[in-house]
Design brief:
heterodimer; A: 112 residues; mainly beta; seven-stranded mixed β-sheet; four-stranded antiparallel β-sheet; B: 112 residues; six-stranded mixed β-sheet; 52% strand
């Protein structure tokens, strides 16, 4: 069974731009969560989607948003990029009946 | 609120020696506990999980962990490490919501 896939793997943007990251969960997984990983703040929860609805949201500004499609694929968007948004963005999927989450390889975003 | 403390940011150990990576958590409700491993430029791989039942859980690659409710700990152990175990290890706690709270990570370096 294929794992979680994320595209693109690497991205370079400049301040003020916006970016969209994509995540395809493991087949059959309907819950998708997003995390930000930085050297200073570590791993932080962004949000979780299930059945196209955001169920939980972490403590991030409104510039961070996401959505989920009917096939469970998810996208996250960051508008008006700031230097501090440079990070590894990780997507994780899970079966709704289970608690463990399976992570993708991440998208490395660099904001210049 | 939940929190996770990984007491050691770096653990150097010689090949074939045993290792213990320490993790303490705090939570006001029942928790689920996880250990993930991250190799350079990769996402997180689930090593093992504690959901309920036996307090000693075994995971992949010869790792095991023991859940201690009275000490609110979930330490990770391996009796004999290999060079290939060099990576960063994260302890995480989850609850009923699908939102993981991670520790700051422990860099395990296995020396020849």
């Amino acid at each position: 069974k294929a794992g979680v896939t994320q595209t693109p793997r690497y991205l370079i943007k400049t301040r003020g731009q916006q970016v969209t990251l994509s995540c395809s969960p493991i087949s059959g997984h309907r819950s998708v969560s997003w995390y930000q990983q930085t050297p200073g703040q570590g791993l932080q929860f962004l949000f979780e989607y299930f059945s196209e609805t955001q169920r939980n949201k972490g403590n991030f500004p409104g510039r961070f948003s996401g959505r989920q499609f009917s096939n469970s694929r998810s996208e996250m968007n960051v508008s008006t990029l700031e230097l501090g948004d440079s990070a590894l963005y990780l997507c994780a999927s899970s079966l709704i009946s289970q608690h463990e989450q399976f992570f993708g390889p991440g998208t490395r975003l660099t904001v210049l | 609120a939940q929190s996770v403390t990984q007491l050691d940011s770096q653990v150097p150990v010689f090949e074939e020696a045993p290792v213990e990576l320490r993790c303490n958590y705090s939570s006001s409700v029942s928790v689920y506990l996880f250990w993930y491993v991250q190799y350079p430029n990769q996402g997180l791989q689930l090593l093992l999980k504690y959901l309920s039942g036996s307090t000693l859980v075994k995971g992949i690659n010869g790792f095991e962990a023991e859940f201690n409710k009275s000490q609110t700990s979930f330490h990770l152990r391996k009796p004999s490490v290999h060079i290939s175990d060099t990576a960063e290890y994260f302890c995480a706690v989850g609850g009923s919501a699908r939102q993981l709270t991670f520790g700051s990570g422990t860099q395990l370096t296995v020396l020849p």
